[in-house]
Structures are given as C-alpha cells and as structure tokens.
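Today's session is about reading a structure prediction critically. Students often jump straight to the picture, but the first step is always the sequence itself: look for stretches that repeat, for charged clusters, for runs of hydrophobic residues. Only then move on to the predicted structure, which in these notes is written as discrete structure tokens rather than atom positions. Here is the chain we will use throughout the hour.
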Amino acid sequence: MNRIEKLRGNIETLKDSLALDWSDLSLPLTGEQRVEIENHLEWCLTEMDWCLAEMKKLSQRLRDTT
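Below is the predicted structure for this chain, in token form.
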C-alpha cells in the first residue's frame, strides 16, 4: 500500500504543478490542455483513493480471518 500512497502523492504533486507557470517549457500547454491534464489527474486520484480504500478493507479482512 505504501507504493500506492507514494504514487498518489506523485500525482498530487503533478496536479499542483499545473498551477505553476509552465511558460519555460519548450511546448507550453494551452488552457484546454492544462484542463484536460488536470481532469485526468483528478480521475487518477479518485481511482487511487478507491483502490487504496479497497486494499485496506481486504487487508483488514485477511487479518480478521487469521
């Protein structure tokens, strides 16, 4: 689960980076591209939250049965 939590943190960092000025990039993002990326990263975070919650439930069930 630590790997999932680390990945989630990385995605959150990427999402936060969208708020920075990316004008220094050789291919700056348009507003539409930025929104599309932000929406995708938000979807990833939602999916990871669901996955993490399910993994925690499974882990708890396995501990309860031993």
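Discussion point for the tutorial: The chain has one domain: 2-65.
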